[in-house]
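Annual report, structural modelling task.

Input specification for the iron/sulfur cluster complex:
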Amino acid sequence: MTEWKRQVGEETIYRTCAWSPPGCHPVGCGLQVHVKDGKVVKVEGDPEHPITKGALCPRCLTMTEYLYHPDRIIYPMKRAKEDRGKDKWERISWDEAIEIVADNAKKVIDEHGAEAIMVFGGTGREGNSYYRPLANLVYGSPNSCYAQSGWSCYGPRVAVTGFLLGGGYPEIDYAQKFPDRYEHPGWEAPEVILAWGKAPLESNADGLWGHAFIDLMKDFGTKLIIVDPRMTWLGTRAEVVLQVRPGTDTALAMAFLNVIIEEELYDKGFVEKWTYGFDELKERVATMPPSKAAEICGVPEEDITKAARLYGNAKPSSLSWGLAVDQNPNGVQLGQCLCALMAITGFIDAPGGTTLGSIENFPNAAADPAQEAMKYGFMTEDTWNKRIGLHEFPAVCNIIPTVHPDAMLDTLESGEPYQIHMAHVASSNPAGAAISSCPQRWYEALKKLDFNVVTDLFMTPTAMACCDVFLPLASCVEHDAIVATHYGWNTSFYGAVNNLVDVGETKGESEIMVLIGKKLYPQFWDQFENGTDFDTWYGLRFGYTPEEIREKVTVMTEEPYYKYEKGLIRKDREPGFDTMTGRVEFYGNAYEYFGDDPLPYYKEPPYGPEATPQLMEEFPFILTTGARNYASFHSEHRQIESLRQIQEYPQLDMHPDDAAAMGLKDDEWVWIESPFGRCQQKLHVTPTIKKGVVHAMHGWWYPEQEGEEPNLFGNWKSNINVTMPYKVNGNLGFGDCFKNMICKVYPGEGITEAEVS
Ligand SMILES: Nc1nc2c(c(=O)[nH]1)N[C@H]1C(S)=C(S)[C@@H](COP(=O)(O)OP(=O)(O)OC[C@H]3O[C@@H](n4cnc5c(=O)[nH]c(N)nc54)[C@H](O)[C@@H]3O)O[C@H]1N2
Ligand SMILES: Nc1nc2c(c(=O)[nH]1)N[C@H]1C(S)=C(S)[C@@H](COP(=O)(O)OP(=O)(O)OC[C@H]3O[C@@H](n4cnc5c(=O)[nH]c(N)nc54)[C@H](O)[C@@H]3O)O[C@H]1N2
Ligand code: SF4
Ligand SMILES: [Mo]
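The model returned the following structure:
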């Protein structure tokens, strides 16, 4: 094994792991970072990394462009409140920046209470680990906010797992926990993987290294079943592709269970011993034969039966569920069916099946920020219970200790039940083009607040429009951290993230928290000298020091299989699953407790041919959005020239028959309009998308354009989220329409050059 740090000529080469920024989920891909004269001169893959083995995607390969981009903000800045929307930023010192933030926070806390401060966080970039402690421990506020309507990323999947499975986040088994990987004795390759609403090659979501699908297919003959309205690269190599009408998936999943139960393809021993509610499930899915699902979903009945049999007969079978499960108001029922599909075959936490996480590595072994704030006396129980959405959306807010985003938007606008006065935006761009539906409303609401601060790396539309202080953030080669796949909820390895260079005066997130925290609540924060101290206190308890991990680069968890037999799943260390019944629940007791049907049911998307037939003449297309792309991470990377060469403009996929019928041509600008708003993208005519469905990209803005208002870097021009409604959540409060909206498409004028600065 090569040392983590070595000298080759004038360069020092470090073996380290990537996380964020530049934005990514915690996959922890292995980097070799070449440093010369204090500057990164080259980033390449680390062939000795046990998972990624030298492979990198374009975002890490172009990291030097990102790190040293002329537009990167590398010094703290301030701007007068009346200059919001104008490029009147002024460089200041860190001392002054922290002073301004702390003074404003103090004023709000004294006059209105700490709950009048909110913190925005985004997806699982490193910043995502900090937005709850930033709200609870730095400001003493209960209001941390992930602003996607219906908490529709990972939240639904985590809730479903919490309610029905209680064993961390289930992931396909690609021997990711063992140092000897595919050679590991006892490991088996999945015979079949069912990939549901997930594009793992492009997304590498949450800690799944998507390339594992290729390893498994090539080296072990693993077969794929894909459920996706688009024909993807993996789809062209799959046994069966079910191109569903977006948002109808729950009907399809019920039909899978119907076939598997009817044809007795399930593991009777496992079902008897470890599951709860089989008879009720059987009765319920009997109402959804493949013929009925075929009609609802728009896929051939024989393909449903073929796929269900292939999955049911496979030994072992595995299942990977993606974002299309979450971005669906019927998604917790879909997730319920998928959990049942994982368990009913008996291959849950079995070799080649779907792995679970060990309780010993869960983040709840770490400190709970709200509890700590209460322990130190700067948050009361009463303040914690003022969390926005707690009473309106109890299922969401009891399983996820943040606000409910839709309730938060209401509060910002109405001032009910109380007024919010200040926001700290950390790892999100809520008025921008990714996270939220109705970005215009978040934008208006944020502009009204007394004081806003942002921690980011580039000027974003949110920062330009709404913020008063800009705190510049260090990248993943500019600060120390530890990356844990699946955020600790099913970790394959811990990887070292290292401070190898410094760029300007940027600081890491925990460093910034310590600086502000000391000014507001020294009784707690004075125990930490610096960010690393806080990380050590807050971090996962995994038995290695950061220095040990740095030298090893990665440490595999080597978690065993069949943890439910060994007392490694439940908090009380008894055998079984951490649910109300101790078994995998097909009958969801928690669903019932929170007022939903305990058994899966199919419900049409809120907008579509069944729910809104009167709108279909004007808005004839089903609109799905946001399938991932190698060249960006949400609204990030639009400045990076090499990546813009891969994806210069946002594209709308449309089937050739639909384009011909509409008289639309490939590569022309088109308007995409829903009943809620419109934007423009470029038409991409392709047979890979299901007829009648269009797919739009998300996260688009134009950093090369004029940043001042009203253009705001072209924030509203191609922003697909202006077409999205809010509060279309399912009964438990989860889900949105990002992947199941309706729209019309007609010729556009293009993105005007006049506003290019
Ligand atoms: N490069 C890159 N990687 C990313 C991100 C990024 O922005 N860029 N974002 C990260 C984040 S936050 C997340 S949550 C993950 C998400 O990553 P994934 O879970 O892989 O999700 P998506 O790529 O959004 O969508 C997966 C597939 O679902 C299909 N789909 C669309 N609508 C439906 C539907 O109604 N039903 C079904 N069954 N399928 C549907 C899409 O066509 C797409 O191929 O990716 C992460 N990784
Ligand atoms: N239409 C549509 N919209 C979608 C989706 C979709 O599929 N369709 N997907 C949704 C999903 S799943 C998600 S998770 C959201 C994501 O939404 P967000 O996570 O809010 O993503 P961004 O809008 O890119 O904002 C992230 C900002 O954080 C900065 N940043 C990067 N790393 C860090 C860090 O570690 N700390 C801090 N403080 N800042 C950092 C970036 O520069 C960027 O400006 O988007 C959602 N939006
Ligand atoms: S998925 Fe791509 S951007 Fe993310 S860490 Fe791996 S190589 Fe880097
Ligand atoms: Mo996400």
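The chain has a mean pLDDT of 96.
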